[in-house]
């Protein structure tokens, strides 16, 4: 009990955590969206300038005139004038400047031997270069190999416009190497930065974004504290929803477990997986000394080697509405086991237990056609034993008359133990009855049940009904039945339930007492 309670509490807690986690992820996504909007605003000016720069550079490379020709210089000058960012552009060869658009003194550039940054495409970038009269200010110089470009002076503090939470400004260099312009390097690779992949840290969530053109990337930190402060009503609602979700999950889990482990479902699965088997207990005819029939008994083998008897699962099948499927399965198994043999043994019959619900089920009659007539078995070789665990419907008489008209034998099973037996004898069209073991064991002991058994035998004989005694286990019981002219017997005295293969080769026991009584005229 304690373990089950722990499982339910665990399920409730899990449900609550799931709902809370969904709510928390919603908050994180909301905070991430806001951060991306801030980043877009941060990168608006750099992105515009980057687009202008690359557009200008593309136009320069499209100049078809001979380098440094008057037409070339004129077009270069026009491009520089129209650019928002490019201060001048010069054509160079073998490291020497040959001409420029505005004629600025490129030879006065004080370029260090190593650039501040090498872009992924191989360009060299110097971000703070003193230039002639502008030595008080710095310019950015980019060497593309063919051209040397000077970008207008800019205030690094103003570009980008950094919000308070801007964590870092990064540049993607050659071979995808990440270089930090300012801030903290959180270890994101080139691919992760361009994929805008969010990272969770102890301080908060880090949202990256890169310029659509160029090599600059930025990361923005959204602290967990800020998320909690801005969205605490929603967090509270998520917590409440989590508790409600946990209770709902407990209820659903309880319903699922009841369904998953319900006996009815286990029977349905056993039917689907063909887990049931049949065993056959022979019926002995003391008048001829041979087996004349066998009752098909359903068994349910278990993985551990044990077997579940029908008195445990048949009532469950009836409650679950599966008794019809069970009966049809018995007919199928019987035809598989003994169909060919019964065609050769026309004097042998099989008794099949059926429920009152089967009598009015069209599928039952379809199964009889398929597994009996369809296999070449004669209907008279099949005896249908109606069990009396439930009240037999009023129209059962019409059903039994229909079955007998088709050639099947109809018996009442476990006579004396079910519902309204005398009424059934009057209402049903029957060929015989089977005396239940609970009466057979009291034969000859002088008890009330012994006298009731004698009365039942006499009643059946007056109604011209065949009699089969079940549960015959001792010779005195057999003697008493023979004395009352009951010759058809079933029980451990003659044979236990056997497989189909064993039934086909089974020989009657040599019971001397039977022969002696036959000789004396008792049988």
TrEMBL record:
Topological relation to the membrane, as annotated: Multi-pass membrane protein
Main location: membrane
EC number: 3.1.4.52
Keywords assigned by UniProt, alphabetized: c-di-GMP, Cell membrane, Hydrolase, Membrane, Transmembrane, Transmembrane helix
A GO CC term attached to the entry: plasma membrane
Alphabetized GO MF terms: cyclic-guanylate-specific phosphodiesterase activity
Localisation: Cell membrane
Residue span, EAL domain: 260-511
UniProt xrefs under InterPro entries: CSS-motif_dom, Cyclic-di-GMP_PDE-like, EAL_dom, EAL_sf
CDD domains: EAL (cd01948)
Membrane-spanning residues: 7-28, 232-254
Reactions listed under catalytic activity: 3',3'-c-di-GMP + H2O = 5'-phosphoguanylyl(3'->5')guanosine + H(+)
Signal peptide: none
Pfam families the UniProt entry points to: CSS-motif (PF12792), EAL (PF00563)
Record-given protein name: cyclic-guanylate-specific phosphodiesterase
Record organism: Kaistia hirudinis
């Amino acid at each position: 009990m304690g373990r089950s309670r722990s499982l339910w509490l665990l399920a409730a807690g899990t449900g609550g955590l799931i709902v809370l986690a969904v709510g928390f992820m919603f908050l994180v996504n909301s905070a991430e969206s806001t951060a991306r909007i801030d980043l877009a605003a941060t990168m608006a000016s750099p992105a515009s300038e980057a687009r202008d720069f690359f557009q200008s550079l593309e136009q320069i490379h499209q100049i078809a005139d001979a380098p440094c020709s008057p037409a070339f210089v004129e077009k270069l000058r026009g491009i520089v004038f129209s650019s928002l960012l490019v201060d001048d552009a010069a054509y160079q060869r073998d490291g020497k400047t040959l001409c420029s658009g505005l004629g600025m003194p490129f030879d006065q550039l004080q370029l260090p031997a190593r650039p501040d940054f090498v872009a992924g495409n191989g360009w060299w970038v110097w971000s703070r270069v003193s230039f002639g009269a502008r030595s008080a200010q710095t310019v950015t110089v980019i060497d593309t190999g063919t051209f040397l470009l000077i970008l207008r002076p800019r205030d690094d503090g103003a570009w980008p416009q950094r919000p308070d939470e801007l964590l870092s400004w990064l540049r993607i260099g050659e071979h995808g190497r990440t270089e930090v312009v300012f801030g903290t390097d959180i270890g994101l690779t080139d691919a992760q930065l361009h994929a805008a992949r969010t990272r969770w840290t102890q301080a908060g969530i880090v949202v990256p974004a890169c310029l659509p053109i160029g090599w600059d990337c930025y990361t923005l930190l959204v602290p967990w504290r800020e998320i909690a402060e801005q969205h605490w009503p929603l967090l509270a609602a998520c917590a409440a929803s989590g508790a409600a979700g946990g209770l709902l999950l407990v209820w659903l889990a309880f319903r699922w477990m009841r369904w998953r482990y319900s006996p009815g479902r286990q029977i349905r699965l056993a039917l689907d997986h063909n887990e049931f088997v049949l065993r056959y207990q022979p019926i002995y005819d003391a008048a001829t000394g041979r087996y004349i029939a066998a009752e098909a008994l359903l068994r349910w083998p278990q993985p551990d080697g044990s077997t579940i008897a029908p008195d445990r699962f048949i009532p469950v099948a009836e409650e679950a509405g599966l008794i019809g499927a069970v009966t049809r399965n018995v007919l199928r198994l019987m035809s598989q086991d003994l169909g060919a043999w019964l065609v050769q043994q026309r004097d042998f019959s099989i008794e099949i237990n059926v429920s009152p619900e089967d009598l009015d089920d069209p599928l039952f009659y379809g199964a009889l056609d398929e597994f009996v007539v369809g296999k070449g078995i004669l209907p008279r070789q099949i005896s249908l034993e109606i069990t009396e665990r439930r009240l037999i419907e009023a129209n059962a008489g019409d059903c039994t008359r229909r079955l007998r008209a088709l050639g099947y034998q109809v018996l009442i099973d476990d006579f004396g133990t079910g519902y309204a037996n005398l009424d059934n004898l009057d209402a049903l069209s029957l060929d015989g009855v089977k005396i239940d073991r609970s009466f057979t064991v009291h034969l000859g002991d002088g008890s009330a049940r012994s006298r009731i058994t004698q009365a039942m035998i006499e009643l059946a004989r007056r109604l011209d009904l065949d009699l089969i005694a079940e549960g015959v286990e001792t010779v005195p019981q057999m003697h008493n039945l023979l004395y009352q002219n009951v010759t058809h017997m079933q029980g451990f005295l003659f044979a236990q339930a056997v497989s189909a293969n064993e039934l086909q080769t089974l020989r009657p026991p040599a019971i001397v007492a039977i022969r002696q009584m036959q000789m004396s005229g008792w049988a």
